[in-house]
Amino acid sequence: AQTVTQSQPEMSVQEAETVTLSCTYDTSESDYYLFWYKQPPSRQMILVIRQEAYKQQNATENRFSVNFQKAAKSFSLKISDSQLGDAAMYFCAYRRALNTGTASKLTFGTGTRLQVTL
Amino acid sequence: EAQVTQNPRYLITVTGKKLTVTCSQNMNHEYMSWYRQDPGLGLRQIYYSMNVEVTDKGDVPEGYKVSRKEKRNFPLILESPSPNQTSLYFCASSLRPATNEKLFFGSGTQLSVL
Lengths: 118, 114
Prior knowledge:
The complex is a heterodimer of chains A (118) and B (114). Chain A has 118 residues and is mostly beta strands. Chain A is built from no helices and twelve strands. Chain B starts with a strand and ends with a strand.
């Protein structure tokens, strides 16, 4: 079974600085998708960024970028120029690319709570 | 507006009293799913549905039931709730399963079972 590990329960960053959240996963599949979701205090789940395993280029969305290391099964999220609104719980998630029943689920990590200080 | 509507947002009940959490999406999505979120455990899948009348168990299905009689609705039923089902619940949907599409999440239901 696939597992996703986020080893940092909490992180803190100063406003305007850069922070990296780590995520590792375990899978025997070669084709899959990886995601970072943000959950602010409102509890809403917001997709931050996604990466297809077959793509070598790291995904980027404005101030958010990933460092995808397929061989190491690592998928870290870098937030540049941190803002107060970035304070939230961040979840890393994995999804197989096969279109069969249980393959369709997102497997989540346990989350990293990010604090942004002035 | 494309959305997943989940109700209620908060629910307090007592052990053994049957309850239903409703979930409806207006995007004609095939795939729908229920997750529970617990501190230190992240989100875990309870049940999912690939299409109308097609449902299957996720990782933590014990004590829950679902149905998918219409494409838009996917209610979560707790026949006899117990305190260990106190949790934050999310309904989610996507057009198809097993893709890089994002999941659309409902706003969550905080359930407390006394």
